[in-house]
Amino acid sequence: MKLAEFGASRHDGRREYEWKVTLGLWAVIVAAIATFHGQSLPKWLGYVTIFVFAFLWLRGVWVANEKDKTLSLHYRRQAEQLLTKQTESTDAPFAGTIPLYKQAFGFLFDWSMLFQLVTTIGLLKLAYLFVK
User: Fold this and answer.
1) How many CA atoms are closer than 13 Å to the CA of 126, on its beta-carbon side?
2) pLDDT tens digit sequence for 57-73
3) 79 — pLDDT class (breaks 50, 70, 90)
4) Are 8 and 73 in contact (CB under 8 A)?
5) What is the DSSP secondary-structure string of the chain?
6) With contact defined as beta carbons under 8 Å apart, do 94 and 74 qualify?
7) How far apart, in whole angstroms, are the C-alpha atoms of residue 76 and residue 17?
8) What's this model's pTM, rounded to 2 decimal places?
């Protein structure tokens, strides 16, 4: 159970940090709207921001969270088998691998990651509407 709790606590801790970074990015975008009002911003900056945020930040956080959730679930099942004295083998090793296709694009199907991405895109669209 300690290993299951370890995975769950890492996931929870990362989630708090994840939202602080995301809210910080949103604050920077809103500050850019106020600061650069009437000036022009290069279009590539918005695309680069979206790409970096999505594929370097959100994807990385999602993959780490999935590994921690999988670890927690695995050891909870192991503990349940030990406590209920099931005859199945309880010493199965933890694989903890996520298929490559899921590592690359799985975060796009998670509601939290999708919400953060869509909100960021919306704020960037507002930035380009109000700044220009």
Assistant:
1) 14
2) 999 898 888 888 787 77
3) confident
4) no
5) -HHHHHHHHHHHHHHHHHHHHHHHHHHHHHHHHHHSTTS---HHHHHHHHHIIIIIIIHHHHHHHHHHHHHHHHHHHHHHHHHHT-SS-S-PPP-----HHHHHHGGGGSHHHHHHHHHHHHHHHHHHHHH-
6) yes
7) 25
8) 0.76
Phi-psi region of 38 (alpha: psi -120 to 50; beta: other; left: phi over 0): left
Give me the pLDDT at residue 72, please. Answer: 77
11 touches 65 (CB < 8 A): yes
Structure tokens at 40: 């022009």
Both tokens assigned to 59: 């994807």
Burial category of 22 from C-beta neighbours within 10 Å (exposed 0-12, middle 13-18, buried 19 and up): buried
How many CB atoms neighbour CB 120 within 10 A? 21
Question: Residue 14 and residue 64: Cα distance in Å, rounded?
Answer: 9
